[in-house]
Amino acid sequence: MNEFFKILRYAKPYKKYAIGHIISNVFFALFGTLSFVALKPMLDVIFEKNIDPCTGKAIITNPTAPIYKGIWEISDYFEGLLAYRMHEFTGGDKSKALIFVIMLLVLAFLLKNISGYLANYFMVFLRNGVIRDIRNTVYNKILELPLSYFSEKRKGDIMARVTGDVNDLQYSMLPVLELIVREPLTILFSLIAMIIISTKLTVFVFIFIPIVGFVISKIGKSLKRKSDRVQREQGLFLSTLEETLGGLRIIKGFNVEKLFNEKFKASTQRFYNFSNKLLIRQSLASPSSEFLGICMIAVILWFGGNLILNDASESFLTGSKFLVYIGLAYNILTPAKAFSRGLVNVKKGGSAAERIQEILTAKNPLQDVPNAVEKSGFNSKIEFKNISFKYDKEYVLKDFSLTIPKGKTVALVGQSGSGKSTLANLITRFYDVNKGSILIDGQDIKTLTISSLRKQLGIVTQDAILFNDSIKSNLQLGKEDATDEEVIHALKVANAWEFVKELPEGIETNIGDSGNKLSGGQKQRLSIARAVLKSPPIMVLDEATSALDTESERLVQVALENMMKNRTSIVIAHRLSTIQNADNIVVLNKGEIVEQGKHDELISKNGTYKKLVDMQSFE
Q1: Between 20 and 30 A from 579 (CA), which of 33, 259, 410, 454?
Q2: DSSP string, 114-136
């Protein structure tokens, strides 16, 4: 139940709907009970020829207005009042009396259903608002969490939590919000009416209530564990699906369709087995509670029937009262069954809530420190001061130091795993250093707000990350309020306008999922254009040409040279052509600087850099 109350916190902004829902449900439960109580006068009129239809006693020709004598006699007071008013209305005519009680019955059911509609009306806004806010909160948390969190998670599992688990809350846990007030109050009002009619009979009802609760709790105990297995398996086959869609070219190229098909089928088979066990156990709740309820009615019929047959024991229990009592007892069954089913759903939804809470409560080590400084510009230099960093156990960078003056281009080269891309991740604060510090204009980047730090940086990665939208919208990620003229200028700088202007809708052309309607070189030039439009003082180029063919590389290289003019640039290099004009080339090996200098200087040293050039192995 803890998870349920955590979810209820999201209902706070909708308290006006919650209040309306509660009030409506109070009236729903009240009029639901009164609609059964109103059956008694009608039954008396029809079946009891010499009995007053309201009091169950001998007919009084001219009843007088009753006098209220206290709470313990409130039942007799209302019966007398109803008899008095009905006599005023009918003048003692039984046909008119029948019309009167039928009108009361219809009115009670009308008010009950109006209250039920209003309760559902308010619940629509409450329930859908809570679900929307949970989805938004989870998505916002995903955006806030560092990259390190997702390197340990499957994408499919994250997607399953945002979609499947939230849907589970919508259809299993949140419907209980509707039951919290309505069903308990319906049971309470019905029990009060039953106690007023017959205390002895009602004692038997209380005997069966804990029995029903015990059976339902036994059924619900294993639901949470079974539900958790179902949701985890759903995350697994969603991950397989996501990987399949992203790797279809490789799957087909290596003829491993059968392998992936078997992997997916094995996952869905486990999902099938787990789901069957979950639903079978879940389905037990409703018939079990209904059967126990019918057993309760049977006991009432036996015991109440004996009370009527042996009228010496309880002479005031008439046939009409007994029928109304049976109706009230049955009126308890439906809300009791719904409430027990709701408790089962809370158990089932608890697993989904836990998986969602796991994301929401995940620690984010990359947060702004108190009183973090807003960085508004770049003035002098970037410094890496004795930094060390590790992703897991072994350090990728060891006591690394480097100074990059403003306006200079520094290239980082070395074999794969030497720590080049790690430096790009550290200066952008995708990760934090374990030791040492990174300074911009003498300020430790940990003391700056992350947002203002990243405003100073433009990033172009090896994989051109584009979104299923128009060219214009993709570029405006760099500057949201950019005009068409500014977008076109950025495209020209990035050497991309030549192909964009030939597209059917120009900058409004949709480029498809991940930009797949374009070639690799075209996508990369759009990435560069996006960085140009942002116009940051510092550029970070992470192997921006390594995945391109020679012709595309030439076009992109021109774009990069245009972009790097008058900017401080950190270039993680793959090919010689991208760095030979750099102001400083830093050669890394196993996280340490082994050489640095200009291209010609390093070639003349005939060291590590010369070997890399000869092998053309800038990775």
Answers
A1: 454
A2: HHHHHHHHHHHHHHHHHHHHHHH
The yes-or-no verdict on residue 321 having pLDDT over 90 is no
For the record, the structure tokens of 299 come out as: 């006991």
Tokens of 376: 């508004």
Please give the model's pTM, rounded to 2 decimal places.
Answer: 0.71
Tell me the H-state helices in 14-146: 15-37, 39-47, 74-90, 94-144
Cβ partners under 8 Å of residue 597, min gap 6: 584, 585, 605
User: And the tokens for 149?
Assistant: 């969190």
What's the pLDDT score for residue 71?
57
b/e sequence 568-607, b meaning 16+ C-beta within 10 Å: bbbbbbbbeebbeebebbbbbeebebebbeebeebeeeee
Tokens of 300: 């009432």
- Out of 142-151, 292-301, 475-484, which region has the weakest mean confidence (pLDDT)? 292-301
Task: State whether residue 587 is helix, strand or coil.
Answer: strand
Give per-residue pLDDT as tens, 415-464.
777 788 888 889 988 888 999 999 999 899 999 998 888 888 888 877 77
Domains contained in the chain, CATH given = 2-360 (1.20.1560.10), 381-615 (3.40.50.300)
